[in-house]
Amino acid sequence: SSLVNKTAGSVRVFGYDIDKDIVNAKRQLGLVPQEFNFNPFETVLQIVVNQAGYYGVTRREAMARAEKYLNQLDLWGKRNERARMLSGG
């Protein structure tokens, strides 16, 4: 994720070498924070789409992925709710 610099060796994320293809390596990573580190007044969908943009994902692709993954997590029905209204558990 590049939060910490490696000092030796190599790192691959699902086959992507971070020295050669950091963009695709980062696209394989995700984060579901327990604490608020985003705007709690944004909707679930806004947060997911905006976070994807930090990893170089286009808005169109982010919307498609958001629908896919929020459905997988059974959260698509909550997509327009403010994040602060959701349970943390």
Question: What is the structure about, briefly put?
Answer:
With 89 residues, the protein is mostly helical. The chain has helices at residues 22-27, 44-53, 59-72, and strands at 12-13, 16-17.
Structure description:
There is one protein chain. The protein is 34% helix and 4% strand. The longest helix is centred in the last third of the chain and has 14 residues, at 59-72. The protein is mainly alpha-helical and 89 residues long. It is elongated. It folds into two domains: 1-30, no CATH class; 33-85, no CATH class. It has a two-stranded antiparallel sheet with strand order 1-2. It has helices at residues 22-27, 44-53, 59-72; strands at 12-13, 16-17.
The DSSP helix count reads 3
Order of helices and strands: EEHHH
Strand residue content: under 5%
How far the N terminus sits from the C terminus, by CA atoms, comes to 25 Å
Average pLDDT figure: 88
Q: pLDDT below 50 for ≥5 consecutive residues: which ranges?
A: none
Name the quaternary structure.
single chain
* Overall helicity: 25-40%
In one word, what is the shape?
elongated
Radius of gyration, Cα only, in angstroms? Answer: 15 Å
